[in-house]
Amino acid sequence: MNNRGLLLMGLLLVSMLMFTQWKQDFDPEIQAQKQAQQAQLAAQSQQAGDVPAASNANNQIADATTQGKTIVVESDVLRLTIDTLGGDVVGSDLLKHNAELNSNTPFKLLQQDGQTIYVAQSGLVGRNGIDTNAGRPQYAVTAESFKLAEGQDELSVPLTFEKDGVVYTKTFTLKRGSYDVGVNFNVKNNTSETIEVQPYGQLKHTLVESSGSLTMPTYTGGAYSSSETNYKKYSFEDMAKNNLNVDTKAGWVAVLQHYFVSAWVPDQDAENNLYSRTSNGVATIGYRGALTTIAPNSEANLKSQLWTGSKDQNEMAEAANNLDLTVDYGWAWFIAKPLFWLLTAIQSLVTNWGLAIIGVTIVVKTILYPLTKAQYTSMAKMRMLQPKITEMRERFGDDRQRMSQEMMKLYKEEKVNPMGGCLPILIQMPIFIALYWTFMEAVELRHTPFFGWIQDLSAQDPYYILPLLMGGSMFLLQKMSPTPVADPVQQKVMTFMPVIFTVFFLWFPSGLVLYWLTSNLITIVQQWLIYRNLEKKGLHSRKK
């Protein structure tokens, strides 16, 4: 990659990251919202208060986060803590993901403590609903803990509640190796009257600022999918401004954070209403299902799914349509998805994610080699024409029109495209951005070692060796550049570019730095081969 390519990429990347951080740190509107949120949080008690929710029926969804007795339901990958008062999931431990590198403490996704509320609530409203602000059901359960046994593929735990001759059974079903939890209601009407219930599910999260940093911007907030919109983020700021209110068949609602997601997936064959609200420093995003009528002496089954786990694209795609889009590659998704497939395919062969990153880089650089060759060939030809162009400037002086005409004539005679060095860079830019987001979003890289001192490809190099090597490779590429700029200011900018990039990359995830270092080394080899071939053809003169 030549100086101009590096400068263009650098300016675009740094501008994107700086703008993201500026929006969070200095935007007046966001700052006003942050101050309002902080005031709410200061007044918030350890538990969220009762807040009525808008409803399609003349009922209110229970919004209290009170606690009764808790039970634990565990599979091989997931441990749920369930409150028997309401049957809410108030904790989810991801047993295959450590909270910190080598900590042996499971990562907590859903949780409820004195500072953070992040819970998954579900229940029944409607004329005969049992989850309202007037009270919530105290479910009965046969034990305090349940665990998936060896050789068992599925674990179902029923919670039961009886009221006025109606038996309500809420069943949680965990499957081996899956973060997809079935949460189903069976309503048995033993009365002589017709009853009506309406299912709902909602995620509650303490209002927080978007997470991430200047070098690693990430998103914490809501998202949803509907029949009209495959995937859309709906941030806490959006919720504070305007309540979500979308009627859709199928769809889902979610709360996202880097590498992890919780989502309610209602019955995909039913009409659902997606909603949100904020109150007392807590954001809520959820769904309401269709009103269900149950005849006397009959029963109904109402199904839903709760995803609470890592952003495993393949599993999420099986769990619900478009749920895998929560792995957000931005506008470059159509390039990033095949790149991620390639990354996983190579990893399955080499069994090391660092080597897989190197493999992806080699494949991409090989595919782009014709563009790289065209780029450097064009630059070499332009360098060859510099003496003639300098002579023209001296001859025509301030006659810019004549100068322009003669230069175009020279380009035509020598079959040189003055934009030939820029076009390949513009074509490669979307691929670079797609790779950037692929490595940023891949949970597979979290706490994953490479070799030696690199024990986590999603974290920065602890000894800054890779960033320094990357800076050295940029410096070497700069020295090999065939078209040094003449302007003194640009020369100074180019001189400091390796230093600037090295400083930025000190805090980049080591997986990204490994990609860029590998890309630079491959470019150095390709550039040397291209120039050597051009020298044999007499199209390139060595620097003196």
From TrEMBL:
It comes from the Bacteria. InterPro entries: Membr_insert_YidC, Membr_insert_YidC_N, YidC/ALB3/OXA1/COX18, YidC/Oxa/ALB_C, YidC_ALB_C, YidC_periplasmic_sf. The keyword Cell membrane applies. Residues 1-20 form the signal peptide. It is found in: Cell inner membrane; Cell membrane. Residues 71-342 form the Membrane insertase YidC N-terminal domain. Keywords: Cell membrane, Chaperone, Membrane, Protein transport, Signal, Transmembrane, Transmembrane helix, Transport. Residues 353-532 form the Membrane insertase YidC/Oxa/ALB C-terminal domain. The keyword Cell membrane applies. The chain crosses the membrane at residues 353-372, 416-439, 489-508. Pfam families: 60KD_IMP, YidC_periplas. Belongs to the OXA1/ALB3/YidC family. Type 1 subfamily. NCBIfam families: PRK01318.1-1 (NF002351), PRK01318.1-3 (NF002352), yidC_nterm (TIGR03593), yidC_oxa1_cterm (TIGR03592). Required for the insertion and/or proper folding and/or complex formation of integral membrane proteins into the membrane. Involved in integration of membrane proteins that insert both dependently and independently of the Sec translocase complex, as well as at least some lipoproteins. Aids folding of multispanning membrane proteins. This is Membrane protein insertase YidC. It comes from Mannheimia cairinae. The gene is yidC.
